[in-house]
Amino acid sequence: MANESTTKNPTATWRYVIPNAVTSASLVLGLGVLAVATQGEFELAGWLMVWCVLLDKLDGTFARLLGASSKFGAQLDSLADMVVFGVVPAGTTLLLLRARPDLMAPWLGRELLMYAMLSLFAVCASLRLAKFNVLADEDGPPVFFGLPTTVTGGILALLLLIGLDHQMILLLRVLPVLALILGLLMVSNIVLPKIGHSSGLFMQVFRAVTIGLCYVFGFMRVFPEYLLGISLFYILTGIVLGLLRRDELLSGKGPEDGADLDLEPQPG
């Protein structure tokens, strides 16, 4: 929130509007996902979820560039993430299965189990973000504990897209099971280092190129396989590094956050 110095300077105050507007745009876009999904436009819904992931990266970037980080922005970001990366992916998956009898067939007579799995995904997202809010003001190691909500929501959207693009009926049928697994990984104690803080030239270039391609492919609505591959590469690499360097990482100092794909604290 703006302090006394910023309230006297309209320009300084308006700096906070930009990142918060991006966060709000992500929330509006997330609601648009459900709107198009109810019309049966599931491929478009999947890509809109990918765009939400890209916007989630931008709000933190704008906040850092403008020096507009605030507790208000962090709270707004967490609330938006709960809806966009918790409720929306689960709801879209449910709408897809209910709209396609061929996908719903294995769940006939097990509808309650399917609903429970998707509901747990949303609940786990809210639990993770609640944990972030509690720990945000405390010093801690520069790591993630469990998978960030942005990552899991994006992965579920990409699995949906790939399943639709390649007519992978089995993949689409087991989306509730995969959602449950991703939900449990969100609230797990798996240690993931924040590779975004790396000062090595190779990692900086690699990160810039891969993220740049994610934006290009994401907004062009092409190559969801690349986007999924990058996400899984990050997760698997992070898990391995977390296992090999757990004691070293946990002895470090830094904020713990769980909602930013940029792997840095959530400003806004």
UniProtKB/TrEMBL annotation:
- Where does the sequence pass through the membrane? 16-38, 79-100, 112-130, 142-164, 170-192, 201-220, 226-244
GO terms, molecular function: phosphotransferase activity, for other substituted phosphate groups
Q: Which InterPro entries match?
A: CDP-OH_P_trans (IPR000462), CDP-OH_PTrfase_TM_dom (IPR043130), CDP_ALCOHOL_P_TRANSF_CS (IPR048254)
Q: What is this protein called?
A: CDP-alcohol phosphatidyltransferase
Record's keyword terms, sorted: Membrane, Transferase, Transmembrane, Transmembrane helix
Query: Is Oxidoreductase a UniProt keyword of this protein?
Result: no
Please name the Pfam families in this protein's record: CDP-OH_P_transf
Species of the source: Enhygromyxa salina
Coiled-coil annotated residue ranges, if any: none
A GO cellular component annotation in the UniProt record: membrane
Q: To which protein family does this belong?
A: Belongs to the CDP-alcohol phosphatidyltransferase class-I family.
Origin superkingdom: Bacteria
Q: Which GO terms describe its biological process?
A: phospholipid biosynthetic process
PROSITE patterns named in the record: CDP_ALCOHOL_P_TRANSF
The answer on whether this UniProt entry bears the keyword Disulfide bond reads no
